[in-house]
Design brief:
- It is found in: Secreted.
- This is Peptidase M10 serralysin C-terminal domain-containing protein.
- It comes from uncultured Sphingomonas sp.
- It is a single chain.
- The protein has 140 residues and is mainly β.
- The chain has a single domain, classed as Serralysin-like metalloprotease, C-terminal (Alkaline Protease, subunit P, domain 1, 2 Solenoid).
- The strands form two sheets. Strands 3-5-10-9-8-7 form a six-stranded mixed β-sheet, with no helix packed on it. The chain has a five-stranded mixed β-sheet with strand order 1-2-4-6-11, with no helix packed on it.
- A hairpin with an 8-residue loop joins strand 9 and strand 10.
- It is globular.
C-alpha cells in the first residue's frame, strides 16, 4: 500500500498497490466509523489476474458510500492517453479493449478488466463477500 489518508469519519482515500489486503486492523491509519471510502487504483497498481494473486478489499459497502476509483487507470493500452472503462456488468468480455466486469465465485466478488482487447483479464481485484455491482460502484 502506498499511502492511506487518515479519516476518523470513515471517509478515507486508499491507494492500492499489488497484493495488498486493504483495511487490516493493524494498519497504521485505521479506517474508523461510518462513511464512504474511495479505493483509488492507477495504471500499474493492479497486476494479479487470478484469485490469490490480486488485491483484496475487505468490507466493501456501496450502501456506506464506498467506491472503486479507476478513472486514473488507462482502460485501453492500444491507444495513447488515458481512456475510461466501459462497465459491462457480469457479462463476458467480448474482445473489446477497455471492458470492466465482475463475477462471483467461492463467496467473493471479483472485478476484472480487459485493457488490450484479447478477451482475457489484464487485472483482477477481489471484494470479500458477494456484491452485485453496478456502474455506480465505480468512478470511471
Amino acid at each position: 500500500m502506498q499511502r492511506m489518508q487518515p479519516a476518523l469519519d470513515g471517509t478515507a482515500v486508499v491507494l492500492g498497490t499489488r497484493r495488498v489486503i486493504i483495511r487490516l486492523p493493524w494498519c497504521c491509519w485505521p479506517l474508523l466509523g461510518a462513511g464512504g471510502d474511495r479505493f483509488v487504483f492507477r495504471t500499474g497498481d493492479l497486476a494479479g489476474t487470478a484469485p490469490g494473486s490480486c488485491d483484496v478489499i475487505r468490507d466493501y459497502s456501496y450502501a456506506s458510500g464506498d467506491r472503486l476509483r479507476l478513472d486514473l487507470f488507462d482502460a485501453n493500452s492500444n491507444l495513447a492517453g488515458t481512456q475510461d472503462f466501459a462497465f459491462i456488468g457480469a457479462g463476458a468480455f467480448t474482445g473489446v479493449a477497455g471492458q470492466l466486469r465482475y463475477e462471483q465465485a467461492n463467496g467473493n466478488t471479483f472485478v476484472s478488466a480487459d485493457t488490450d482487447g484479447d478477451g482475457d483479464a489484464d487485472f483482477m481485484l477481489q471484494l470479500e463477500g458477494l456484491h452485485t455491482l453496478r456502474s455506480a460502484d465505480f468512478i470511471l
